[in-house]
Structures are given as C-alpha cells and as structure tokens.
Amino acid sequence: MAATAQISVPGTDRKITVSTGLFIDNQFVPSVDSKETIECINPATEEVLCSITAASVKDIDVAVASARAAFNTTWGKNVTGFERSRLLNKLADLIERNAQELAELESLNNGKPVRLARDADIVDSVGCLRYYAGWADKITGQTIEVDNKTKMAFTKHDPIGVCGQIIPWNYPISMWAWKVAPALACGCTIVMKPSEFTPLTALKLSELVVEAGFPPGVINTVPSLGSVGGAAMSSHLDIDKVAFTGSTVTGRKIMAAAAMSNLKKVSLELGGKSPQLIFESANLDEAATWAAMGVLFNTGQDCCAGSRVYVQDKIYDKFLPILVEKASQLFVGHGFDEKSGCGPVVSKVQYDKVWSYIEAGKQQGARLVLGGEKRTEKGYYVDPTIFADVTPDMKIVKDEIFGPVLSVGKFSTEEEAVKLANDTTYGLAAGLHSNDAGQCMRVSSALEAGTVWINQYNLLNNNVPFGGKKQSGIGRELGSYALEEYTSIKAVHWNYGEKLDWPL
Length: 504
Fold this sequence. Notes:
- The structure is a single chain.
- The chain has 504 residues and is an alpha/beta fold.
- It has two domains: 4-270 and 472-489, 3-Layer(aba) Sandwich (Aldehyde Dehydrogenase, Chain A, domain 1); 275-454, Aldehyde Dehydrogenase, Chain A, domain 2, CATH 3.40.309.
- 37% of the residues lie in helices and 23% in strands.
C-alpha cells in the first residue's frame, strides 16, 4: 500500500488524511519504477503541504491495462445503465457528505475560498454527477427504415472505451466531475491525470469511488507531470479517447500525439480571451457587477473569463468608475477567511506570469485605474487590476492572462463592437449587456463564441453544453452533447427477407 500524508486544517485541530500514491485498480499503490514525487504547495502560504508519487510512463501502462480489463469485464457493455446510474448517484451522495473536507482540501491546494469551493464548485459537481446519472439508462439509437418488406437498420451508441482524461488546476473538483460523469454514464472506463499543481482532491475523490462501489479499474488516478503522464496518455495505443482541459499550446501537442498514434478521439476545452460588450441601453450598475464577476471570479483563473470589456463611447466615462468601484469591493484573502471572495493565484509560475502582463500593460501605455501593486506578505496574491483606454495591439488585450486583470476599451457602433469582440484567435465565450431585444439577438448571433451570455456572465448549467470555436477547442462538455464525446455509433443492417441473385 502507498503512504499517506496528514494535512492540517487552518484554525482547527483537524487533519485531512490523503493517500500519496497512485490509484490503480481501486487501490493506492507506489510507482512501479519511479521515485519521482510532486510537491503540493499551499498558494496562500507558499508552504509545502505534502509530496505525492509522480506516475511514470510504465505506471500509465498499468493504469490503462486496469481500465481495459474493467471495460471488457465489469463495466462497458457488461453492466446496465440502471447500475451505472445507481453508482453515479451514490458517488454524488458521498461527495455531498464530504463537501466540507473536500472544500478545505481544495482551498489548501488551489487557493480558492473554502466557501466558494463548497457552495459553488462542489454543489455544481454533485449536480453534474446526478444529471448524468439520469442519462445513463437513456442512451438510445435509432431504428431506420430501409425496406419494410425485407430489411431494416438500427444504430447503437456504444461506449467508446478507455478514456484518458487530463484536467486543469483552476477547478480541480468541477473538472473532475465534468469529465468523469458523462464518461461513466456511457460505460467508459477512465485513466485520470489531475494537474501536477492540484492533485489532492482527485486522490481524495478516488477514495469515494471505492466506497461508492465502482468495480476496480473503472476509474484510475495517476498524478504526473504533463510532459510524462499527459504525453503518454495522448500517444497510448490502448486509449480510445483523450479529453483535455487546459492551454491551447498543450492542446495542440495532444492532438498531434493522438493523430500520430492510433487516431484516438480527442475533445479539447482550451484557452480564451473573451469579450464583454456594454451597450448604452444596458443597466450600468448591473452590467458593471457582471463585468467584474466575469473577470474576477476564481481570481481570473477561468478559461472563459471576460477579460476584455468594450463600452459604448456615449457611456464610457460614466461606466468606468462604476466598474472600478465594483472591482475594488472584492476582498482577496486566505481561503479560510469567510470574507474572501477570491484567493491567491495557484502557483509561483502563475503569479510571475500575471505580473509580467501587468508590467506589460503599464509599459505599453494602458491607463491603470485599479490595482497593479504587489503585496509584501507571503502568498501568491494578485489584487483586482483594471487597465482603461486599451488598444487592440497591446499584450494584455491579445493574450490570455489567466489572472484578475481586465482591459477596458470603447466602441462607437454595434458593428465596431462585434468586430472588436471577434478580433481574437479564441472563441470560447462572450457576453453582451443591452436592454434592446433586437440588438441582443443580432449581436449574440454575430459573436464567434461557443457560449454567449446576455445580461449576465460566467454562469453555467449542467444541462447546457459548453465548449469553444476557433483555437478554444473541439467538442462539448455538459448537457446531452457531452454524451456524444464518449460514444461511438454503430450501424447494424439487418436483412430478413431479401435473396441475393447470383452470379451478378
């Protein structure tokens, strides 16, 4: 058996026990050939929480073999949709039962406030599992008329097989649920690689997988460096599909590896540089609240963060002070402080990246109207930062920052607003604020994004699909559309009456 670590919960005398090995075949085990470890850091204190086993390429092979064995025997087509539904609901119940501990562990490893991890991320994750539990026994094909006298055809939606799932560090529990729930509902088995920055909740969730009663091998958890585990999964000849959420740069590597190996199916949810348009008819106070939330939620570490705000020129000078006031009201602090609406960014790497963009904004002449000053205490804290009067050529406007940094510009006409919004290689999300119904329809149709919010931002629903266009990715998560990512369609042609004339 692999070792465990005891992690202290701030402000209490409690400790959370975390297994530090790899989770394969329903057991926590050491690596078969590696002594490499991953240090898990608390971004609020910069202290090491614990060290866990880093999976090697051979460990990935072992996990894939376990997943394949389960798919061929105790899962896949060998278990009913009713049973898959029962187990998914049981897992949801256990996560709900353990919500406080999971939220505390999430906060310690990721930095986000416990309150938001518990009341937002985990609540939505439980809902996601229950949503797909409802789908598990409702995956159906079609009966297709060919010739009613002699033959027919029908389709079956088969589970695609063994799935490699690679999740990011910004929403470790939510992204786990988004990937696991539809895959299990369809009958797939999983090799899960959490981010090397935030592997602890995935390991803790693995304990609940056993308690829920899933057969060994259905879900395997292999924390590792992306260059090791992620690369091995992407090119593995016995993995049938890879699902990835993360950067566009890494997404390209995964797609190339999948193509060069066994042409496995790939779904990619990648980066974004999403716009929010504020038209003159909008309720400015409400629009400012949504605009602030759109870029500051989760400390801006959000693939669909509305990090570019464009305001109609007639209201620009009136709107900007309201937006600055809204953003300045957000308290950024330790995840165990109930007042915190945001925590630190996840790592020193991310901290340095965000600050490099803030400095670039200053150097390129954007007008700093909020934030932009470093704190002196420990922790990877970045306060809300807003630049005004930006131009399209600035780095802070063009690049995904993944931090609480907002660029604000202006437009004159609806056509100019759409052009500015679409002037990006990304196409994940967009928002618009207007009380003109015709304008809402025109602009939402013209925006090049997989998700468009009108008079709101950043709110997702488990029954509504999410995914991007352009360099923001391929495929969809959530909703019934996600089921398509984990099934393959088989057409069956049945001849029950035609006699073949032979020879031809």
